[in-house]
Amino acid sequence: MFLHSILSTLIFLPISGGVAILAFSNEHQGRRAKLIALISSLLSISLCFLLYYRFDLTLPTMQFQESSVWIQPLNIYYFLGIDGISLPMILLTCFITLLVVLDAWHTIHEKITQYLAAFLIMQGIIVGVFSALDSILFYVFWEAMLIPMYLAIGIWGSQNRFYASIKFFIYTFFGSALMLVALLYLRYKANSFSILDFYSVQLNMLPQTLIFFAFLLAFAIKIPMFPVHTWLPDAHTEAPAGGSVILAAIMLKIGAYGFLRFSFPIVPDACKHFDLLLIILSLFAIIYIGFIAIIQKDMKRLIAYSSIAHMGFVTLGCFSIYRIVEHSKNISAALMSIEGAMVQMVSHGFSSAALFLGVGILYHQLHTRLIKDYGGVANTMPVFAAFFMLFMMANVGLPGTSGFVGEFMVILSSFQANPWIAFLATSTVVLSAAYSLWMYKRVFYGKVANTTISHLKDIKMIDMANFSLLTLMILGLGLYPDSLLKILHPTIEHLLTLSLQSKLI
Amino acid sequence: MYFASALPEIIILTFACLSLLADCFLKKHFRQINYYIAQTALILAALASIKLLNFPTVYTYSGMFSLDPISTLLKLFIYITSFFSFLYARAFFETEKNIPVAEYYVLGLFSVLGMMVMLSSENLIPLFLGLEILSLPLYAMIALKRHNAISAEAAMKYFIMGSFASAMLLYGMSLLYGLTQSLNIHEIANVFSQGMTTHNLVFACAIVFIVSGIAFKLGAAPFHVWAPDIYHGAPSIMSLFLGSAPKIAILGLTFKLLIQAMPDLQLQWRPLLILVALLSMGLGNIVAVAQTNLKRMLAYSSIAHMGYMSLGLIAGNQEGYAACIFYIFTYALMTLGGFAMISILSKSGIEAESIADFKGLNSKSPWLAFLMLLLMFSMAGVPPTVGFFAKLGVLTALVNVNLVWLATVALIFAIIGAYYYIAVIKAMYFESESTPNPLPIIPLDAKIAISTNALLLLFLGFSPGFLFQLCQRVLI
């Protein structure tokens, strides 16, 4: 009985938690707000455990389905369900929100109730995005997500927050508008708003192309891909720590999720036709953005650019499948490619969250994000420096950490497509090491740069707990990636058959 | 049957006369009673209309009067929006003493009566009479604050522009009469369906005059120039009435003239409406970006909304018309809320009409800021507010008749539109005011009204099904 509505509970529990915070606590009752937020997060996590254990790993189909009529005259359903692609994303969302709540404990003083409420509501909405199977329901969650994020950047952001928040909103709003037209057109063809019904619609090349580009605009802005990535450095840099964490760890993944849920199964022929374009854009993200990351003076900006580069691997992994199949006739290599992309998504969720939380801790004490203002932090914050080293290594993709697994799988399979693609993609090993380690050296090593650094205090218990959880995840996924792969495998196999069949009439 | 079908009109007329008398014979401090008279009239009329909603179409009073579900539903929407308008007005008059209080409600009731007459007429003569009964009280209403130069100017402009629009419409109707030899809407439709040729100059002129008259009255581009000046010049309590209920009535007029009188001539008026819609969405949204005055911004946004609403007419089927009715009601609710917020935050006659006046509202009153946030996101069409579903309805109808390009253009203009709505939110949430300016005391009923109004947008966003169904049902 309860399991039938577990997804709804996961959506509406945090949302009602957020509403409860707004209703039952005011600015002076921050403690109460924090408590409600913590309880809501912990309940969500325990529901996630339940979800994980009840999830049937052998099935490629949608599980935990819930369906009821929502808007009868327009034929819109409240239709939820998850498969192996959405499950890891939902788990990630709940986990990361817990980190954000814990992080807010000491760092946020202004309007703490609204802050926590915004992030809890956002958690519910994002779980909604990952579990919606009705396209309009998906779109509603997708757009609604903008509201709390826009407020989070604008209210708790730093100096340039007005510009960043409006740029973020307009950019993403612009991307999704054309997607709505595509969804309405598909409904016209399929006579249903259900995403699963869209999969069986036969389409000619012209509508496929138009739909493909409508989706591409929406998802490429969200990921973000080169050249529509420019909103991200601004948004990331100006957002509060929690905002950057949610943006980097979860929101970017929604774009890639969109490719897997919509583009590949609905317009496979267009995806195949334009795959080279996407591969080139991905390589651009990996190499060009990697170079840009090296010269950043601002730590958050550097991590933001590194996020774009890492997401380049995700899109590369997704879109190289057609060439892999064409050249090697080897389905298992294509399978590995998409799985690698998924692993990369989850792994980047952990490492980027960890890095942004870390920079948030430094910023909270020194109120500057510029690398040149730091130096020798390892002397005053040794524990923090050790954790940060590990997170940097995960970002670089050191074997043993989660970052290695995804990149390795993508590079390995892209060899089958074209060795040159693999060659270019491998440059990330050098580039990410360069920007990550150089930044680490300048911030943490050397002599203590100034007196404020000598007064830095090492991290508190609560941050230690946060970082330990992240370390556990990063090493866990790095040493035993099979735990994630076995969730993904049946679903991605099914997805691949959908993506490789032609839908031309 | 004779009287029963006109019961709502009779109720409103009786109470309007009653309040006129009360205003003449009661002492000054009893004149608040007019407020209660007006609200009672609306409630009673609403009850009568709810009863009549399930009736089949009835023609009576020598074929001059018709009672059909569409008009009854639109009338219900008019009562609801007028009820809210009067509520906000009462709160406003507590602080503003320079405006004659009682007249507002009398004029309001007579205007509502005009809307109802127009919606129920089956003949072009009462149709036009209704339009004039609706418009004349509005001219007077704007002029109520007659010592204020801007208000007087707005009233004069509205009078001249409104008369001009009426004249255009009247000319179009007279050409229609010349073509068909009939004033009865049904008979006109019959003449057209019997294969009357429409490829002549007279018919073209009739169509052009009627569509421009309607666009004028709706405040849609390119006949929109009066709207910003008048919404800005009139006290916001008048603007909110002006921007909501009459637009619903004009949609009813459009249904009568374009759809009921010329059911098969859709392809003749569609290009004109497409032009009106494109210009309204484009101009409204783009010019609104540059506004610093919230009232002017809302005026331009209303021009844009009229463009979106007419997309449903362009779709030209039941689905589109239902979406149209849905859109106009949600639009009316949003406009009410937007202007009401300005009026509520105004202090001793000085209105909070500049966007800068909303700076730091979140710190002063998180609740009011949240309500305004809902209003703005709903106007921008961001889910989960109902504004999204209103747009979704008209766009779905458009895509289903293969007008994908128009839907795309409409959405692109909606993105431009989002910018100025979120600029208001930016002012409320992200900025703080330079000089501390405490909130005025807000009467409880106004607080409840604005909360209901804004939360309704959220509630209808969560479950728009019922309202959609209602809009579809009356069309069958």
Would you kindly provide a written description of the structure presented here, covering whatever features stand out?
The complex is a heterodimer of chains A (505) and B (476). Chain A contains 23 helices and two strands. By secondary structure, chain A is mainly alpha-helical. Chain A has a two-stranded antiparallel sheet with strand order 1-2. In chain A, a hairpin with a 4-residue loop joins strand 1 (63-71) and strand 2. In chain A, helix 4 (112-131) packs parallel to helix 11. The longest helix of chain A is centred in the C-terminal third of the chain and has 36 residues, at 331-366. Chain B is mostly helical and 476 residues long. Chain B has a domain at 268-476. Chain B has 19 helices and two strands. Chain B has a two-stranded antiparallel ribbon with strand order 1-2. The mean pLDDT of chain B is 88. At the A-B interface, strand 1, helix 5, helix 6 and helix 7 of A face helix 15, helix 16, helix 17 and helix 19 of B.
Number of extended strands of chain B: 2
Given the helix and strand composition of chain A, which structural class is it?
mainly alpha
Strand order of the largest sheet of chain B: 1-2
Largest interface by residue count?
A-B, 36 and 39 residues
**Low-confidence regions of chain B:** none
Gap from first CA to last CA of chain A: 43 Å
**Cα-atom Rg of chain B, whole angstroms?**
21 Å
The geometry of chain B reads as globular
**How many strands, which pairing sense, and closed or not: the largest β-sheet of chain B?**
2 strands, antiparallel
| Secondary-structure content class of chain B | mainly alpha
Q: So what's the overall shape of chain A?
A: globular
Q: Give the helix level of chain B as a range of percent.
A: over 70%
Q: Approximately how much helix is present in the residues of chain A?
A: over 70%
Range of strand content of chain B: under 5%
**How many β-strand runs of chain A?**
2
% residues in beta strands of chain A? under 5%
